Amino acid sequence: MIKHISYKLFSMALAMLVLLSTVSFTVEKHFCGDVLVDISMFTEVDKCAMEAQELMLKKSCCKDEIDIVQGQDELKTTSFDDLDFNVHKFLAVFAHTYMYGFEHLPKETIPHKDYSPPNLTPDIQVLDQVFLI
């Protein structure tokens, strides 16, 4: 039971690792001067009130910074045919040893398997605590 659950947890962890390593996302930051005004991961950042005044003055004190976190684009897949001959030999010998290397023990016959023990009768002398001296 524990072995089955641990296999499930391990396979879920590996699936999550593959998923998280291939996900890409963008982090947008809006600075007004040296002050961080807004951070956004999934939507556009909110502009500050100075942005409207900058259009009139043509002087920019605000800036947007975009950080792109790239995930892995290509996953490497290999087949059995891509391996060297030595690896082929090792895997074949390992599989053969694992499947046929263990001898099956002969089934032992238990002669007293169907034997029921005798009924125990209580010792009357001990129960009544009467002893011959």
Give the topology.
Blueprint: H1 2-22, E1 25-32, E2 35-40, H2 50-57, E3 62-69, H3 85-100, H4 124-128
Antiparallel strand pairs: 1-2, 1-3
Can you tell me the residue ranges where pLDDT is under 50 for at least 5 consecutive residues?
none
Largest β sheet strand count, sense and barrel closure = 3 strands, antiparallel
How much of the sequence lies in strands comes to 15-25%
Distance between the termini: 61 Å
Q: Output the number of helix runs.
A: 4
Q: What best-fitting shape do the alpha-carbon axes yield?
A: elongated
The helix content is 25-40%
N-to-C series of helices and strands: HEEHEHH
Question: How would you describe what is shown here?
Answer:
- With 133 residues, the chain is of the alpha+beta class.
- Helices cover 38% and strands 17% of the residues.
- The protein contains four helices and three strands; from the N terminus they run αββαβαα.
- It has a three-stranded antiparallel beta sheet with strand order 2-1-3.
- The longest helix has 21 residues.
- The chain starts with a helix and ends in a 5-residue tail after the last helix.
- The relative contact order is 0.10.
- The mean pLDDT is 83.
